[in-house]
């Protein structure tokens, strides 16, 4: 029969020194407020490139997307009723 099945000493011990605290040291305070919904944006996004080359690539992308939708293999997902 196996001994120590759920009684007595714990099977696994937790070493608090491995986390970075020593015995008797005060643990950090508990934060009781929720985190902010959106973090501060210190960095602004880079503006999009504009020009003839970018406009050409956008037109190609839109044309290929429309071509794919017109193909007989394109399967549309049915919209769910609300």
From TrEMBL:
Any one GO CC term of the record: RNA polymerase III complex
Protein name (Swiss-Prot/TrEMBL): DNA-directed RNA polymerase III subunit RPC7
Alphabetical GO biological process terms: cell population proliferation; transcription by RNA polymerase III
UniProt lineage: Eukaryota, Metazoa, Chordata, Craniata, Vertebrata
Locations listed in the record: Nucleus
Top-rank taxon: Eukaryota
Species for this entry: Propithecus coquereli
Record PANTHER family: DNA-DIRECTED RNA POLYMERASE III (PTHR15367), DNA-DIRECTED RNA POLYMERASE III SUBUNIT RPC7 (PTHR15367:SF3)
Principal location listed in the UniProt entry: nucleus
């Amino acid at each position: 029969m196996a001994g120590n099945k759920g009684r007595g000493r714990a099977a696994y011990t937790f070493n608090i020194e491995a986390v970075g605290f020593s015995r008797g040291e005060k643990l950090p305070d508990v934060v009781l407020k929720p985190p902010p919904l959106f973090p501060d944006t210190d960095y602004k996004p880079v503006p999009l490139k504009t020009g003839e080359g970018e406009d050409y690539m956008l037109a190609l992308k839109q044309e290929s997307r429309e071509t794919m939708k017109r193909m007989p293999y394109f399967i549309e997902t049915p919209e769910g009723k609300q």
